[in-house]
Amino acid sequence: xxxxxxxxxxxxxxxxxxxxxxxxxxxxxxxxxxxxxxxxxxxxxxxxxxxxxxxxxxxxxxxxxxxxxxxxxxxxxxxxxxxxxxxxxxxxxxxxxxxxxxxxxxxxxxxxxxxxxxxxxxxxxxxxxxxxxxxxxxxxxxxxxxxxxxxxxxxxxxxxxxxxxxxxxxxxxxxxxxxxxxxxxxxxxxxxxxxxxxxxxxxxxxxxxxxxxxxxxxxxxxxxxxxxxxxxxxxxxxxxxxxxxxxxxxxxxxxxxxxxxxxxxxxxxxxxxxxxxxxxxxxxxxxxxxxxxxxxx
Length: 297
What we know:
The protein is of the alpha/beta class. Helix content is 48%, strand content 13%. It folds into two domains: 6-65; 71-290, Rossmann fold, CATH 3.40.50.10880. The protein contains twelve helices and seven strands. It is globular and about 60 Å long.
C-alpha cells in the first residue's frame, strides 16, 4: 500500500509524540523533529510506503534522542494487561465444540488485539482498554473460512508478529494453527522499534513452546518486506504454504510486493487510508486473504 496525502501529517505527528516520550531535553527534541521531517522529505515519492517512511523516522528518532526503546513502558503495560485476560479468552475458546469455530474466534481475537498501538492520530488506545476491545471490537472483513481450509491442507505456516501485548493474544492463534496439523514458524524483531514485539516478548509469553521455529529479524524495519529480509528468512517464508501477517505495517509493505504464497492479513484499520484500502470503517478489523499474483523474485 503506497502513501496517501493523510499519511504525511500522521507520520510526522506520531514522530513528534514519540520524540516527547523519548527525551526531555528541548535541544534534542528540536534536532529530532527536524531530522524526521528531513528524512521523510528526502525519501518521499508517489511509490513510497508508510511503513518504509516510518522505519526511517524511527531510525532518526533513536539517533537524535539516544533512546533505543521509546515505548518500553507501554509495551510492559500491554503485556501485563493482556496476560491477565488471556485465561478468560482461552476459556471462551474451550467452550466451542468444533475446531473451525475455535479457529475463527482465535483469528477474531488476534485481529482485534491489533488495536494495541499508540500515538496514531485517528486511533486512541491505552493498555487499560484491552478488555473492552474484546467486548466491542468488530471484524468487518472475514476470510477465515478460506484461510482455515488452506491451513488444513498445509504443511507449514509462518506467522509475522506485530505489537507487544498483541503477541499475548496471538499465542491463542498460534495454538489453533498448530492444532490443525501445520508446522508453525514465528517471525519477530530482534530489537525494539516502536511498540513492536521482540524476541524478549516471545520468551516472556513462552511462545517458543508452541512454535516449531522462531526467527529473529535484525533488519530495522516497521513491516517485514520480502525485499529487505535476509535471504534465509525470505526463503523460509516463501517455502510456507501460508503467511499470516499481523498489523498495518505488514499490510502496507507486503501488498506492494508479489508474494508467491497466500498471505492472510489480520489487522485493525487504525487510519483512513488503510480503512479505505480494506473497505472497512476506521477502528474495525479485517481478516483478509490475498492470493499470489505471480512469483516473487
